[in-house]
Design brief:
Helix content: under 10%
Strand content: over 45%
Number of strands: 11
Radius of gyration: 14 Å
Oligomer: single chain
Structural class: mainly beta
Largest sheet: 7 strands, mixed
Length: about 120
């Protein structure tokens, strides 16, 4: 069973930056794609950014230009750099990895890290 552990969340003022990390218990190169999601209180979980095994990336429109998803090519960690944070970015941020094996998709989730942006 793959385990994912997020870190790097915290309290930051509007306009500030945070870098989230997601460390996997296996090499990131065994996964087809990696992603960050977030869930604000009372709202559904939403996709924030994705990174495929080939290195292509995508980000949700509300955060484009303010975030960068990247990976540690030497190891087992994916990052989410967030700049110019806004109070509406306040949420629990989760990492999600998935892989395809023998025709079956396997998904793994971390337990989340809280990001709070004060006005």
């Amino acid at each position: 069973q793959v385990q994912l552990v997020e870190s790097g969340g915290g309290l930051v003022q509007a306009g500030g930056s945070l870098r989230l990390s997601c460390r996997a218990s296996a090499s990131i190169f065994k996964f087809n794609a990696m992603a960050w999601y977030r869930q604000a209180p009372g709202k559904q979980r939403e996709l924030v950014a994705t990174l495929t095994i080939l290195g292509s990336t995508d980000a949700t429109d509300s955060m484009k230009g303010r975030i960068t998803i990247s990976r540690d090519n030497a190891g087992d960690t994916v990052y989410l750099q967030m700049n110019s944070l806004k109070p509406e970015d306040t949420a629990v941020y989760y990492c999600n990895f998935w892989e395809q094996r023998d025709g079956t998709r396997y998904e793994y989730w971390g337990r989340g890290t809280q990001v709070t942006v004060s006005p």
